[in-house]
Amino acid sequence: MAEFLHIGVPCRAKPADSVYVAEAKVSVTNPDAHPLHFEYCVADADSPLPEVLSRLPHVAFGVADIDAALEGEEVIYGPQTVMNGGARIAFILRDGVPIEFIQSL
User: How far, in Å, CA of 64 to CA of 102, rounded?
Assistant: First the structure.
């Protein structure tokens, strides 16, 4: 079962309180610090993340098994291990909407 985690909001300027996810070349804020669980994101020009994530918000869900969650989906990125091996992430498009799956390791 997927659990809602956050809404990723693309922005142009790097937020002051962001952390850098080196594997994806993106700066993100902590969604748990926002009352509506917004994660503000800005990707480097050479980020491997799909361009659609710089244009559209995404919805993130925690999953127990990312490989099972990706079965039959249109995967646009990943799975990729990030956060010093603490998580695996992947992005899909469903009905034109970017969705992120996150599996804690």
Answer: 8
